[in-house]
Amino acid sequence: MAPGVITVVVGLVGWPSAEQASAPSAASHCSRAVAHGTTQPSARLPEPFAATQAANTEVTADGGLTPGVFQTNLDGVGGMAFTSIAMPAHAPRPGRLGRPVVSTMFGAGHDKTLSAVVVSLPVTERIEVGLSHQSLHLGSLRSRVGRATTLDMGTHHVAVETVSLKYVVVPEGGLSLDWMPAVAVGAHYKRNCEILRINRKLRGALRWMGVDDDDGIDFTVTASRQFDSPLAGPVLVSGGIRFTESNQTGFFGFTDGYRAAFEGNISFSITERLVVGAEYRQKPDRLRRVGSLYRPEDDFWAIYAGYRIDDHLSVGLGWVNLGRVANSREHAFFGLSVTYGF
Questions:
Q1: Paired strand residues for 339
Q2: Given phi > 0 = left and psi -120 to 50 = alpha, else beta, which region is 203?
Q3: Nearest to residue 103, comparing CAs of 237, 9, 31, 193?
Q4: Long-range contacts: 280-285, Cβ < 8 Å, 24+?
Q5: How many Å apart are CA 23 and CA 261, to the nearest integer?
Q6: Which domain does 149 fall in, by range?
Q7: How many domains does the chain contain in total?
Q8: Which of 62, 106, 142, 273 is 20 to 30 Å from 173 by CA-CA measure?
Q9: CA triplet 225, 227, 233: central angle to 5 degrees?
Q10: How far apart are CA 238 and CA 234, in angstroms?
Q11: Secondary structure element (H or E) that encloses residue 119, with its range
């Protein structure tokens, strides 16, 4: 998912309102693909709406979470573009159903472009469901492969569809421990819609490189905690482990055998409307290198800024270093996102 991820990078934006909910958008391209706790806030924190993580979360009397910022990652759950936070994009009040958040994202770099639609729905204050459709334009890769092998890949695009489920195991401040971060576990089913067809077109070359399947499931464990700040709102710090079989986040298929990778992010509420943040995602490199056509996979890191226009609409900008993506180096990938919360 490496390349596609970029798109999302651009914006994981949200808006405030601990009581309003929203959810990112998701679009589906393949037929098979798909598809916290809080009582009453003890104190209302500023609600920066931002493009990367829920920098605004309210800690309730019982240690629950009520995000004041809505944002989703490419998997369709609360987080930055490539990484997760332990809170949902927006947690509803206990006993109430959350409202969806829909996001559209577009990103472009030196040779590759990515577009995505993401939808997030917090079913309860602890359970979040997400859907996403990402499409990566491969740029010059098809023509380069044709010149080098006389074979035609048959497409300039690859698409990945994701269905996610996240559960908040422990809310922030839970277990009667003030220092306890929120802890969530997630499962993210992904399917690449074109990779097997491309493999046939290239006469099994992708299988030789190490691509075994067109689908897989990522498992995540994430911890998030807020810290006091002299700014408009708290600083939110998140870190976790992702167990994955994906190559380039799924855009180049899946290789049997899980690898553990670290990911983390941080966000700052500059004002009640402006939030900035950064993230880092480690990525396993398991496919064989093929000259200049496919180079080793790099880790991702990015910086973001999100601005809340009103209680429902927000926009985000992002700059991402995706490193090597197949035949190109995407060290300066820029993205834009628009998010609407119902």
A1: 103, 314
A2: left
A3: 9
A4: 280/83, 281/82, 281/83, 281/242, 283/2, 283/248, 283/249, 284/244, 284/259
A5: 26
A6: 2-341
A7: 1
A8: 273
A9: 110
A10: 13
A11: strand 113-122
Largest CA distance in the chain: 66
CATH of the domain at 213: 2.40.160.40
What are the tokens at 271?
Answer: 């004002």
C-alpha 271/C-alpha 212 separation (Å) is: 47
pTM for the model: 0.80
**What would the two tokens of residue 96 be?**
């109430």
> Quick one: tokens of 268?
């700052």
**Tokens 């090597």, residue?**
324
CA distance 58 to 235: 12
Closest C-alpha to 260, from 218, 213, 323: 218
10-residue mean pLDDT profile of the chain (342 residues): values are: 39 37 40 40 33 36 37 89 89 81 92 95 92 97 95 96 97 93 98 96 96 98 95 93 97 97 95 92 95 94 91 90 94 90 83
Distance in angstroms (rounded) separating the CA atoms of residues 269 and 306 = 10
